[in-house]
Amino acid sequence: MIIKLEQYILDRLTATEKKIIDYINASDTELSKMSIVDIAFETFTSPSTVSRAIRKCGINGFNELRYLLMKPNDNKNIASVNEIMNKSLVEAAQTIERVSINKLLEIINTIISYKNKKIYVFSRGPTAMVAAEFCFKMELLDYNITHTDDPKIIEQIAKNAVKNNLFIMFSLNGQTRELITAAKLINKVDAKLIICCCYDKSTLLQYADYYLIAYKSKNVSIKEFEVTSRIPLFILSRIIIDYLVEQKNTLL
């Protein structure tokens, strides 16, 4: 039995939720291979109902339940897959926890105030995928925005920066030489600079007007190259975009 049903827990569960927990306890040997959708299908419920039932039992969602099941598991393949999935869960959860609502609102209000002005987005390396998607969605929201990851173009644009420009930089460690050089030039003309990175001691932060710092896992899969997961930066990008959409819909 993976979930112990104490009386105080039983008192909180609906009949449907108790049926879900009974199924989980009866299927604990197969649970590590299942998804929350599988359990919902087998119990004729929904994933949200399964999640709610698990949380009422003091477990922080299905992924935590599956992670608990992983530890005594003799199947090394299953244990390995669960460990990998848990790494992404931790990155996402830790990143969201680190987002300051006040800082986020300051960034949102700043971006909105530049709706009719020029916005530049800089990035380098694999992080360019995050910045490119961010710019694509900003364009759909009718912002005048340009993204580049070319170091020479970054430097030239930064040299020509003026006070009424807004710059946004996405960087994993915030230590990229070209971005730091650009940040210094931007700072000299008092243009606004927003930084999204995963390192709270980033050199870039000293030049930022506003910043968000995501969580980066220390467990890197491919150690020979700098191809660390950009999931945390994608999450920051999504939070900003979704909030801008929410603000736009509110004004309609």
From TrEMBL:
GO terms for biological process, alphabetical: carbohydrate derivative metabolic process
Pfam families: HTH_6, SIS
Keywords of this entry: DNA-binding, Transcription, Transcription regulation
Protein name, per record: RpiR family transcriptional regulator
MF annotations from Gene Ontology: carbohydrate derivative binding; DNA binding; DNA-binding transcription factor activity
Classification lineage: Bacteria, Bacillati, Bacillota, Negativicutes, Selenomonadales
Keyword Lyase among record annotations: no
InterPro entries according to UniProt: Homeodomain-like_sf (IPR009057), HTH_RpiR (IPR000281), RpiR-like (IPR047640), RpiR-like_SIS (IPR035472), SIS_dom (IPR001347), SIS_dom_sf (IPR046348), WH-like_DNA-bd_sf (IPR036388)
Segments forming domain HTH rpiR-type: 1-76
Keyword Nuclease assigned: no
Organism domain of life: Bacteria
